[in-house]
Amino acid sequence: xxxxxxxxxxxxxxxxxxxxxxxxxxxxxxxxxxxxxxxxxxxxxxxxxxxxxxxxxxxxxxxxxxxxxxxxxxxxxxxxxxxxxxxxxxxxxxxxxxxxxxxxxxxxxxxxxxx
Amino acid sequence: xxxxxxxxxxxxxxxxxxxxxxxxxxxxxxxxxxxxxxxxxxxxxxxxxxxxxxxxxxxxxxxxxxxxxxxxxxxxxxxxxxxxxxxxxxxxxxxxxxxxxxxxxxxxxxxxxx
Lengths: 115, 114
What we know:
Strand content of chain A: over 45%
Number of strands of chain B: 11
Oligomer: heterodimer
Strand content of chain B: over 45%
Shape of chain A: globular
Order of helices and strands of chain A: EEEEEEEEEEEE
């Protein structure tokens, strides 16, 4: 079965500083990777996804992630964060391209931006 | 506006009572899902459905039940058999082809057992 590990439960950074949220997944022949964001007391929203092709994936709100097959990682980065980026971020994996999307989520990383 | 509506937003239950959480979508999606969220554990899949009148157990289905009588509705019942029901419950939906991994989530229902 697929699994995802987010290496940091909390990441505090100062506004306008760069940030990296780390994610490792269990190896599989075919894997599809996702980052979701959850603002307080809300549902999740898709930030970006890797299905195939270029290993550098760009998403909404200036975030990007790099797929590294040899290290089984899919770390999320942003060069300069804003107060509004304060949220919980979830890495997720799937091995299905069609049908019901039974995503397996990581434990989440709470990103706190300090002024 | 298209989206997913969950109700109620907050719910309190006494031990031994069943409770039903509502989930309605107007996105015309075929697939619907229920996830449970606990602090530090991420989201865990309870049940999912790909089509009307059909649903499958997820990773933590014990103590829960669902129905899918209409395409737009996927209610979740938390039964008295669920030993630790206090949690944040999220409903989601998706198409079944063409947009892998893109789930649309409701705003959640927070259940507290007193």
